[in-house]
Design goal:
Helix content: 55-70%
Structural class: mainly alpha
Oligomer: single chain
Largest sheet: 2 strands, parallel
Distance between the termini: 86 Å
Strand content: under 5%
Radius of gyration: 29 Å
Number of helices: 16
Order of helices and strands: EHEHHHHHHHHHHHHHHH
Shape: elongated
Strand order of the largest sheet: 1-2
Length: 255
């Protein structure tokens, strides 16, 4: 005999009942078919957006006062924000305030999409007032300053300055491990890089300076400082760069 649970959204408790039936009956087994036609993936784990994080944190006291986490756990599991281990971790806390604390802790590191699902869970399970209060909490999130804003603020004549031997020399002293990525990003080939390395095997700074000159010769009037600075930005996570040295060099060109 085969039973198929199809087209219904089971709660965790309901699923446990079916599991017990299956374990007790040798002639019965269970197939659980997704209750929607969508192919849903679990919410990607990670931190909430800063604003969402602060909105929940600012309302922690009222959540502790009004929320019973047991009421929303099944919804969060069904929508792939929590898993069964999360459920057990919350239920292990004896005091309601501690259960709320564990629930909030898990939400805060359940990924960016978890914030919306959390508010939906509140609204769908009798806590619409909490969802509205969190959503309406005014948060001023400080936007980090762009560390590369100074590049756009350079005068146009500086941006369009062609790379010279002097600029190439100063740039070469500001670049460390992974510098090859800069030239690949500028359009040189691995063969170009290897040839320069073989002709100057004992000095990385000479290799870098010579590659800048080679690139400038190939690009002619298009071999400008702004193109180099933009390439450095693009490979910032792949190459060690002393940005203060680069900035001082660029500003000295402006003066």
């Amino acid at each position: 005999m085969k039973w198929i649970i199809r087209g219904k959204k089971l709660t965790y408790a309901g699923l446990l009942v079916w599991r017990e039936i299956v374990l007790r009956r040798s002639d019965l087994y269970m197939i659980v078919v997704p209750f929607t036609n969508e192919s849903r993936m679990p919410v990607k784990k990670g931190q909430l957006r800063p604003r969402d994080h602060c909105q929940i944190q600012r309302n922690f006291d009222v959540l502790c006062k009004d929320l019973e986490p047991d009421d929303i756990i099944d919804y969060l599991i069904s929508n792939l924000v929590f898993n069964l281990d999360d459920r057990e971790a919350i239920k292990a806390e004896k005091l309601r305030r501690d259960r709320v604390g564990k629930c909030v802790e898990l939400i805060l590191r359940a990924g960016e999409d978890a914030f919306k699902v959390f508010l939906d869970a509140l609204e769908e399970n009798g806590y619409k007032h909490l969802a509205e209060k969190i959503r309406e909490t005014d948060i001023e999130v400080e936007v980090p300053a762009d560390p590369f804003a100074w590049i756009e603020q350079l005068p146009e004549n500086t941006k369009n300055q062609c790379i010279t031997d002097q600029i190439a020399s100063k740039l070469s002293g500001a670049m460390g491990a992974g510098w090859e990525h800069v030239f690949l990003n500028l359009g040189l080939t691995q063969v170009n890089i290897e040839q320069i390395k073989m002709s100057n095997p004992y000095s990385a700074t000479t290799q870098i300076a010579n590659l800048f000159i080679k690139w400038k010769q190939r690009e002619a009037r298009n071999g400008t400082l702004i193109r180099v600075l933009e390439a450095l930005k693009r490979v910032n996570n792949q190459c060690s760069i002393e940005w203060e040295t680069v900035k001082k060099m660029a500003l000295s060109v402006s003066s």
